[in-house]
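User: Fold this; tokens only.

Assistant: Input:
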Amino acid sequence: KSEEILNGIKVHRYHPILHKKYHFIFSVKMIKDLCKEDFDIMHFCSFGVLQNDLILLKKFKKSKKTVFINTPAHPSFSFEYKFPKNLLVKSIKSFERNKINPKYHKIIAISENQDTWMKEWGIKKENIALVPPGITNENFEKTNKKKYQGKFKTLGHKVIGYVGRIQEYKGLSQMVD
């Protein structure tokens, strides 16, 4: 469904006209819809997404009351790329650093070491708020270790749990040998 209400929250779904990997997603309808609404806060979740940049630029000109926040959880485009992709990445980072990121009122870091790569994107330390993700103890259940080991045949083996995307930069190949 393009629209529905889930648990009292109105959900809008958009189908992009362009969707290539993580950053290259584009929905003209979403941009138009978001730009005509009046928000107190707009929260983005990445640097370097053209669609988000267009929304921010349009809304920033239009509204002086909207607070713009970004939580870039990973250092997108912060890796070494081969030619010609490196030219595109350098252009994106330069545009973000000089035109987009200064417009955010706050950048939320989820770990203390994020400010290292955030500086590459033109973020000043005083604009960074540290808000680590949290999980309460209520989210955990005690398990019977022997029952688990029997069910999954892990007896005598080390077990490592991982939740996240499988990406080379996450270092899974270095953890599992």
